[in-house]
Each structure stands twice: as structure tokens, then as C-alpha cells.
Amino acid sequence: MLQTLPALWNPSQSQMGIPLGAVEFTMLPQLSALSSDTLWLKFGHEYLRKAPFICASQRHREDLIIKKQKAHPQNVDLPPILPKKKKKPFPIPIEKMRQAARKDKKIAEMGIEKPLQPPQNGLLVPRLIPVAYEVLDAWKDLIKGLSQLVHVIPVFGCSACSEVHVAHTGHNIQDCNGGTCGSRRGFHSWVKGSINDILVPIESYHMYDPFGRRVKHETRFDYDRIPAVVELCIQAGVDIQDYPSRRRTNPIRMIGRKVIDRGGFVEELKPWRSRGSSSFLDFDTDGACGRFPPPSLADVPRIAQETVDAYEKVRTGVTKLMQKYTVKACGYCPEVHVGPCGHNVKLCGAFKHQWRDGKHGWQDAIVDEVFPFNYVWHAQDPKGPPLRSALKRFYGKAPAVVEVCMQAGAQIPERYKPMMRLDIVVPDSEEEGLVA
């Protein structure tokens, strides 16, 4: 049925009184197969398509599809690599930190004691103690599983840079940034890798009293360095015989930034200087491959699945612990310190360290700095031809632990599939020139 509206007038020709023509709204039968809810405007003998009518139920379905695509995207790009000649961004906006500092200063000027909640007052958080034990147990399982899988799954590391590749041969992607990369035209110098190439060793000073005396440059050899994940678990309530920690019963009191009652300084116990003890070897990655023999081929899929599950438990537990317990990271280098304030060791050699006399630029740490992902290129066929630079945009990436466990037969966690680009077909060498 046609409905004719009043004629449209051209403003430039309104004085002449010449109409442009009538506008007709119609549903064309011959176009109904394309879109049943499309409105077509008729100007004389021509038809123009108008936006379709969308009912409430259809808009609701489209919103659900968009939300589903956002929740489970097909392909996700990795976070950009931060430049080394620039300070890392603050995890908390600087304006919020300034507001909190002004608030603390105002309360201190009024002489009011600063309200502190555990663990900021030196006391433990009871509900996080089981989480700390679970993280430490999962950390031990992760080291044990990777040590066994390294005997079966080949891992290569570049001798000039930090690049790692999990396959039967190293890749041919020219992205080496080592000292001698110019003579090698960007190709990597591959050597046999170890568990330290898969799990990046992030260490921290073990503190008997995190709220006690700070580690100075002259006293840095009086403290042991252990994995930051283990130190975080110790401060969260885990008791290890070789690494004791002070457990306070009375809270710390502060006015502004000044501590008025810390319970006094106590002599630090130092019976932990036994790196060869069995309790230390359980959560240390050095020499882990020699402590565990190669597994049987029938047990490899089971070990791989247990290892990737332990990896997820460690990351989830560290995230929960860092929401309460303070961890500091240098804004210029990978140094990490578990505690309310960073140490005073002058060993920072990053950008403009001369201006800071070698001191670290401490700021709040994020989970990726304590337990980094260590992304590697995903090889769809580990026994196939090596990856090439010309097809680099078709390759995905995955954490090194996930890549090792996947090649050993474990199920890939859902949140890592988009970054691995499993739905992209890598073209052959003959098809390379035909790809846009």
C-alpha cells in the first residue's frame, strides 16, 4: 500500500512554486527477500533504502551478541612493550595518590592517629592465610611439573637476548635486540633452554620484619634473596623453618607518615642461610631439572594438565594477596621488593640511574611484575618448518608455561586462546604473495 505525503519544495525554487515530487513509502515485494523490515523511499521512479525498523527484542539480541563478542573475542593483541628509556606508568593514578597524601597530611596536622587495617598495621589477614599456603603448594607443583616437561618438550633460548621459543627448532623471526644482533641481521642465537627461561626468576630480599630496618647498600649481603612469590606467601602467613618471619600481636600506630609505635626493633634471626636444605630446594628453580627425572610418555599429558592448573592457581592467588599486601617495583628496572617500602640498595642500572645515584624508583607493583607472563610465539606445528618474519602477523603468542603444557597434551585455558590466534590459517610460501 502506498501512502503519499505532501510534495517537497526546493527552497531555491520556492518562489517559482515548482514541487520536487511526492515521496512514497512502500514495501517492495521484489526486495522483501533481502530484508523484510526494510523501508524504501520512492522519489519519482527511483528507490532509496531507509534504515530498517529494529524492534526491542531484536536490539536486545544484538546487545547480547556484542557483549558476548567482548567477553570472548577471537583475537587479542598483546599489551605493548614499554620503552626502556621511559619510566613505567603508575598503577594508581597520580591524582588519587596526591589526594590520599593531602588527606593524611590534614589528619596528621590535627594530631589524629592514622587508622590502619591489616596488613598495613603489621598484623596478618586471617582469611588470606589459606590462600598463601595454596599459592606456595601450587608454586612447588609448578616447578616440579615444568622440570619434568622440559625433558620431553624442547625449549630454546637466545644467548644474546631474553627471547624463548618452544618447538623442535628455533624460529627465524628477525627480532633479536641483543648486543651482536647487527652481525646476525636480527636472527637469534639459539641454545638449549631451561626452566629459568620459562619461569622468569623474580627474586626479592627476605625480610624477618618488613616494618623494621630497611636494607641498606652496605648491609645487602646480610639478607637472602628468594623468589618474590615465596616471600609474599611468607609475609601473608606461611611459616617456613629456614625463613622465619616476625608475627606481631600489637598493631603498628602511625600519625601521618611517622610511626609512633612499632613494637621496637628486634634482633633478626638468621638461621636460614642454608640454600642446600630440602625446604629451600622445593621452591627454587635453580637446578630443578636435575632433581626430577624424565617422566614416562604415558604420564606426560597428566603432568602437563596438573602443571597448567598449578600455574593458574599461582597467578590467581598472587592477585588476591597483592590486593592486600604491599609489593613495590622499580619504575625503571625489573627489581621487586615485598614490603611496605622499598630497600635502599643502589644497584639500579636502568635509564638515568646516574641521576638517582643508582637507587631504585619505587612504586606500587602489579601482578605482571611479580609473576610475569613471559610470552612466546605459538607454534601450531612444533615439528614443522620454523616461523618466519614475513608471516609474523599471522602468528599468535602465549605464556611460555601454557605453550609447554599445550604441546605436552594439556587443555588450553579459555582466556589464552584469543591471543594464540588459533582461528587464523597461516598461508604457505606460495600463497604469501597473494595475501593482502
From TrEMBL:
An annotated Gene Ontology molecular function: RNA binding
What positions does the domain APO occupy?
Answer: 157-242, 329-414
Highest rank taxon of the organism? Eukaryota
Query: What is this protein's record name?
Result: APO domain-containing protein
State the species of origin: Dipteronia dyeriana
Q: What is the lineage of its organism?
A: Eukaryota, Viridiplantae, Streptophyta, Embryophyta, Tracheophyta
